[in-house]
Amino acid sequence: MNIVKNATCTFCGCVCDDMELHVDGDRIVKAKNACSLGESWFRNHTAERLYPDALIDGKPVSVDDAVETAASLLYDAHMPLVYGLSNITCEAQREAVALAELIGGVVDSHTSL
Ligand code: SF4
């Protein structure tokens, strides 16, 4: 059993950074200091590779092909929406906003629901 201290939970906007994660193999089996949402989020993630790196129309493809297709779709879009942005780092959010600016799109998060 490995224990990782001072881990950060990125599930909601609180970004609690005092998690103590207990890891058994590829699984987090306990998330000390996490609220019930964070505990559930950590315990349902695994380092196992359950899915391919990328899909197009439900079929596995290379990341390069997926990026190429995504770029083409975004380039052709009239009002691209960069949406979501929860459960990701500040650095990834910064890149998403930069992408939206580059393609003339708009940004929204799941909190607008
Ligand atoms: S532990 Fe709970 S409150 Fe803290 S970031 Fe995770 S989900 Fe949010």
Folded structure, characterized:
The radius of gyration is 17 Å and the shape is globular. The chain has 3 helices and 7 strands, in the order βββαββαβαβ. Helix content is 32%, strand content 28%. The protein has a 3-stranded antiparallel β-sheet with strand order 1-2-3. The model has no long low-confidence stretch (mean pLDDT 91). The chain is of the alpha+beta class and 113 residues long. The structure holds iron/sulfur cluster.
List the helices and strands and how they pair.
Blueprint: E1 2-7, E2 19-24, E3 27-32, H1 36-43, E4 54-56, E5 59-61, H2 63-76, E6 81-84, H3 90-103, E7 106-109
Bound molecules: iron/sulfur cluster.
Iron/sulfur cluster binds at residues 9, 11-12, 14-16, 34-35, 37-38.
Defining key terms:
single chain; about 110 residues; alpha+beta; three-stranded antiparallel sheet; two-stranded antiparallel sheet; 3 helices; 7 strands; about 30% strand; binds iron/sulfur cluster
